[in-house]
Structure formats: structure tokens, C-alpha cells
Backbone:
């Protein structure tokens, strides 16, 4: 996996370097100057891109006529007691809503299978699994 390096710019803006690619993250006003997506928007972007790539690779491998895919995502927080399928019973939970739009002359069975495959994207699996983040402080 590639290393990602994040360096502070002016205000809250951040320069992100991934291999030869440069991105900027920021917060919208009044906290930031809106030079780029905020961190949650980048997280949703990663999930959406992974979902689309996973579905496209599967459809291509199967020879299915998928001609395009769009993934619309939103993040919000909900009360745990409002989530009947969640293990957590108290406090707030993060919720990501993901909507798939599949294009092409697909059968109902193919569409359903691609929706199932979309749930298997590696980024989504990482977000739904137990995650360990190890931090070190360098001098």
C-alpha cells in the first residue's frame, strides 16, 4: 500500500500526497477556507470509489453489460436507540447512507448480485471491522 503524507498549509488546509498525486483537504467557512473536501468527505469519497471499482471489476469479470455506476453517499450521526440493527444501545452512532445507481442492460438478478458485491468493497469492510490505529510521535 502507498504511504499517504499530510502536511499543514495555511489555516486548516492540508496538503495530501499519495504517490505522485496531490490533494487538498480543508473545512468550510467559518472554520476553514474551503480549499478542498473536508476529512469526512474524503472518507466518503474513498468508500464510494472503492464500491464503484469493486462492482465494475466484478461485472467486467462476469462479462455483464454494466456501462456505468454512480454511488451517492452521506454521513450523519444518529442516536443508538434509533438503530434497531445496531449492537450499541446508547449514545450517538455514525451512519453512512450509500445509494447505488447501476447503468446498462442488466437483469434483475445481475443488479441484485452487483448490489451484494458492492457490500464487499475492501474500504467498506475496513470501516465495518474492528480497526486498530497505532500512533507514534516522532521528534
Residues:
Amino acid at each position: 500500500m502507498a504511504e499517504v503524507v499530510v502536511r499543514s498549509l495555511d489555516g486548516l488546509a492540508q496538503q495530501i500526497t499519495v504517490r505522485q498525486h496531490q490533494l487538498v483537504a480543508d473545512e468550510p467557512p467559518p472554520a476553514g477556507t474551503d480549499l478542498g473536501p473536508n476529512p469526512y468527505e474524503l472518507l466518503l469519497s474513498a468508500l464510494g470509489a472503492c464500491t464503484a471499482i469493486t462492482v465494475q471489476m466484478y461485472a467486467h469479470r462476469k462479462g455483464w453489460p454494466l456501462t456505468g455506476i454512480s454511488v451517492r453517499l452521506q454521513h450523519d450521526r444518529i442516536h443508538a436507540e434509533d438503530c434497531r440493527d445496531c449492537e450499541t444501545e446508547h449514545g450517538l452512532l455514525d451512519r453512512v447512507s450509500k445509494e447505488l445507481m447501476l447503468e446498462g442492460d442488466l437483469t434483475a438478478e445481475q443488479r441484485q448480485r452487483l448490489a451484494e458485491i458492492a457490500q464487499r468493497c475492501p474500504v467498506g469492510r475496513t470501516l465495518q471491522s474492528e480497526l486498530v490505529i497505532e500512533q507514534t510521535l516522532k521528534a
Helices lie at 39-62, 108-118, 122-128. The longest strand covers residues 66-79.
